Amino acid sequence: MKTKVLWIRDEYLRQILEGRKTVEVRVAYSNLAGLQPGDRLLLNDRYAYRIRRIGRYPDFAALLAAEDPAAIAPDLPVEDLLPALRSIYPAEKEAIGVVALEIEPEGPSEPAQRPGN
Predict the structure, then answer these.
(1) How many Å apart are CA 53 and CA 39, to the nearest integer?
(2) 3-state percent helix, strand, coil for the chain, nearest multiple of 5
């Protein structure tokens, strides 16, 4: 099992901690390629979550055809999600591919201990 620190914008982190956002979307950078279900994420180097499932897609349109938009962005109208994703990641990044990480808390949403602490 791997542990990876993943940095999340405050508004999205709040949604995750509230249990409303359960899918984190990223461009398929090489540092995410080795992640597997069961691996541990430390969100913002504080909150321990587990990867339940990983979806891999060629682009954001394919991701949105397969994933629940409310799990990705619970406060955003569905029609605004694709433009929002593309405002974060330009076309050349999207072309790398897209990863959907379905996550769940390891325990209560409290700051976690880093491995070795």
Answers:
(1) 10
(2) 30, 30, 40
> Look-up: residue for tokens 């897609």?
57
CB-based contacts of 61, cutoff 8 Å, min separation 6:
82
* pLDDT tens, residue by residue, 14-27: 999 999 999 999 99
Domains of the chain, CATH where assigned: 3-105 (2.30.130.30)
How many whole angstroms separate alpha carbon 80 and alpha carbon 41? 27
pLDDT in tens, 79-94: 999 999 999 999 999 9
Q: Would you state the pLDDT for residue 107?
A: 75
Please check whether residue 47 is in contact with residue 111, taking contact to mean a CB–CB distance below 8 angstroms: yes
Contacts of residue 20, defined as CB under 8 A and 6 or more positions apart, other chains included, come to 74, 75
The low-confidence residues of the chain, meaning pLDDT below 70, are 108-117
